[in-house]
Write a structure and sequence with these properties.
It is built from 14 helices and 7 strands. It is α+β, with helices and mostly antiparallel strands. It has a 3-stranded antiparallel sheet. A two-stranded parallel ribbon has the order 1-2. Strands 6-7 form a two-stranded antiparallel ribbon. The chain has helices spanning 9-13, 35-42, 63-86, 96-106, 109-116, 150-160, 163-173, 180-185, 187-199, 203-210, 223-229, 278-284, 290-298, 307-311; strands at 20-25, 90-95, 131-136, 142-147, 216-219, 240-245, 249-254. α2 packs parallel to α4 (96-106) and α3 crosses α4. It is 43% helix and 13% strand. It folds into 4 domains: 5-116, Crotonobetainyl-coa:carnitine coa-transferase, domain 1 (Rossmann fold), CATH 3.40.50; 131-220, formyl-coa transferase, domain 3; 230-271, no CATH class; 278-311, no CATH class.
Amino acid sequence: FPARGWLAYETLATHRQDLVMVALTGNPDGTSEVDYTVNPATGFPWATGPRHWAEPLNSVLPAWDIALGTLATVGLLAAERHRRLTGQGQLISLSLSDVAFAMVGNLGRIAEAQLGGHDQPKDGNYLYGAFGHDFETREGRRVMVVALTARQWMALKEATGIGEACGSIERATGYDLSTESGRFQARELIAALLRPWFASRDLAEIRRTFAGTNVSWGPYQTFSQLVNEDPRCSTANPLFAKVHQPGIGTYLMPSSPLNFSQVPRESVCGAPLLGEHTDEVLAQVLGLSSHEIRRLHDQGIVSGPAREAATR
């Protein structure tokens, strides 16, 4: 809801002067936006996709919503710390488009457009600024390989045996493949060297070859492959637990990815049913007696969870 009227900070602060409040909007002027309308304005859809693709390509990941939520939390915690030190509350205003455009600037895209005079073209799955590309394996799976650092690059050359061929590329082109910029300039030539190596091996062999090395790589996975093949997305990882959700079934649910050394990670629990905590809130937050709570139920003013959903 908009932070105006009875929800305006000034109105709420009359009840508590040290109020800390975060107000989220689509744009700084208070107008509406959602992730899927802000993202097209950032420029990234025109820089995403295969080189021959003439249309913008949206991301299915709501990245700006995720960043907005994270920054809202950071802002709230910072303001709460400020209140503990000074006794002062405050309003934190945060807009979705500001989050997105700030990141466009932080990633250098604004400077590139203003000073370089050009937009970054689509480049498929090539990594921008260094070497990285996807490759197909013998059985038709795909993997992503990245060589950002000198250590990763040396490990990749050694594991795949392309060191001598890379030396030939350097002599023929003048590119210095020991640098990120050199590897970026020679990205198509490096990819051409690596493509037959990956095409002649299946994923399991690639995994064994890269195990224990400094090669930076990872397989492409569908959601089903993620949950069926990746131990990081299983109960082998303390992040996850199998939880029964009434009305839906039993499946993996994540807890918080934050793992504090002094505070135990809370157990994973299912989503609350509608009305599940009605009595708890009325008693513990509003201080109503059991008699008053029963009266509210009898009058149909409040309700607990539906009996069928609670027992399924």
